[in-house]
Amino acid sequence: MKKDIHLKNIREKNINDKIISYVVMGAIVVAIIIISLLLYSQKINNDVKDETMTLEQMTDIIGQAEQNEVETESASTELGKTVEESEEETEQKNRQNEMAQNTMTNESVASSTVSENTTQNITGEENKETTAEVKELSFERPVEGEIIREFAQDNLVYSETLEEWTTHSGMDIKADKTTVVKAAEAGVVKSIKNDPRYGLTIVIEHDDVYQTVYSNLLTSEFVVEGETVEKGQSIGTVGNSAVFEIADEPHLHFEILKDSIAIDPSIYIK
Predict the structure, then answer these.
(1) Distances from the Cα of 33 to the Cα of 38, 80, 244, angstroms
(2) 3-state DSSP helix/strand/coil % of the chain, to nearest 5
(3) pLDDT attached to residue 116
(4) Judgement on whether residues 47 and 85 belong to the same structural domain of the protein
(5) Which of 106, 75, 104, 69 is nearest to 88 (CA)?
(6) Which residues pair with residue 181 across a beta bridge?
(7) CATH, residue 201
(8) Predicted local confidence at residue 56, as pLDDT
């Protein structure tokens, strides 16, 4: 009987010892977690105050916190986490994620601003270069004389030769036969041909946009196709070879084309 009582006492003592051990271990684990969180919170507050926390520093802090959690995880699992611990850990992680996102957003905005400014500078420089490359053409009269027929594409003028009202794609400048005709602007002689309506004709190309046309010529002996000419250079002489204007006084039929469309020469020359 005494032996049984003694064994019972030993068992109760062992149980009490185990309970005390678990309680002590639990207290130690809780103390470690609390100390870690306090140190972690203090470090974040100091970094935020100094405004020196970078994304890399935050990553290091998060890594240290995770390492502390791993070290205490086995002991904490043995006793079980409390509701307060879980809530506190969740709140801390949310704070960390929010701060990391804010930092990344600020860096992204700064990068976007720099990129936009760079693009604007490059675009501005390209526009300046394009503007500098544009050459303004200034045409001058190929011959001096009275204008006997104006440009008329939107209205009609009377043709003595055709004896009817018709359009007129150029400007007729009165000049005696054999009067020297000069290039209205520098360019390249694109063609020299006998047009069935306007007779001997020289076409000079000035760029990808403008061309000048000199018709009703007597000769084109001063230039050849493909030749580069300067403004004011002699290219031919006035004649009377235009079938459509044969009844008119000797004159130069002069046209300016823009993108292959006839435009009013009086806009460019006076």
Answers:
(1) 9, 13, 106
(2) 50, 25, 25
(3) 54
(4) yes
(5) 69
(6) 236
(7) 2.70.70.10
(8) 55
Q: Which residue has the tokens 């996102």?
A: 101
Antiparallel, parallel or unpaired: β 251-258 and 171-174:
antiparallel
Clarify whether residues 76 and 167 are in a common domain.
no
Could you give the CA distance from residue 252 to residue 250 in angstroms, rounded to a whole number? 7
Same domain? 128 vs 152: no
Answer yes or no: is 41 within a domain: yes
Give the residue ranges of the chain where pLDDT is below 70.
Answer: 1-14, 16, 18, 40-136, 270
pTM of the shown model: 0.52
Q: Measured on CA atoms in the order 121, 127, 130, 134, is the torsion positive or negative?
A: negative
Q: Which two tokens stand for residue 151?
A: 């440009």
Last residue of a domain, one of 98, 132, 166: 132
For 186, the token pair is: 């520098």
Bridge-based pairing of strands 152-159 and 228-229 is: unpaired
Do 202 and 227 form a contact (C-beta atoms < 8 A)?
no
How many domains does the structure of the chain reveal?
A: 2
- Tell how many helices (H) and how many strands (E) occur in the chain: 3, 12
Cβ-based burial of 65 (10 A; exposed 0-12, middle 13-18, buried ≥19): buried
What does DSSP say about strands 251-258 and 210-219: parallel, antiparallel, or unpaired?
A: antiparallel
Handedness of CA 227, 230, 236, 238 (dihedral sign): positive
Please report the pLDDT score of residue 222 as a whole number.
95
